[in-house]
Design goal:
This protein has about 80 residues and is mostly helical. About 70% of the residues lie in helices and about 0% in strands. The protein has helices spanning about 10-20, 25-45, 45-60, 65-75. The chain is globular, with a radius of gyration of 13 Å.
C-alpha cells in the first residue's frame, strides 16, 4: 500500500470531490462516495492492496491515525 502523496494537486482533487457533493442529501452523498470508491478500487485492481487500504481506513477511525492518514495523503480531513 502506497502512503506517500501521489496526487499532483491534492487540494484541487479535494475541492472537486467536495463540489461533487454540493446539493446532495446525506444518502445521495454516501452513494456518491460508494460509487467513487468502487471506481477507484477497480482502477487499482489489486485485491491485496485494497484489503490493506480497508484495514488502514478502519484504523483511521482513531483521531491519531486519522491525522496521520490525512497528512500522508496530503489532503485535509474528510467533510
Amino acid at each position: 500500500m502506497i502512503t506517500e502523496p501521489r496526487i499532483p494537486d491534492p487540494d484541487g482533487f479535494y475541492a472537486a470531490w467536495l463540489s461533487a457533493h454540493e446539493g446532495l442529501d446525506e444518502a445521495r452523498s454516501a452513494d456518491l462516495d460508494a460509487r467513487l470508491v468502487l471506481l477507484l478500487a477497480n482502477q487499482c485492481g489489486d485485491q491485496a492492496v485494497l484489503l490493506d487500504c480497508i484495514r488502514a481506513a478502519a484504523e483511521a477511525g482513531t483521531p491519531t491515525r486519522a491525522m496521520a492518514c490525512a497528512a500522508a495523503s496530503g489532503a485535509p480531513d474528510r467533510p
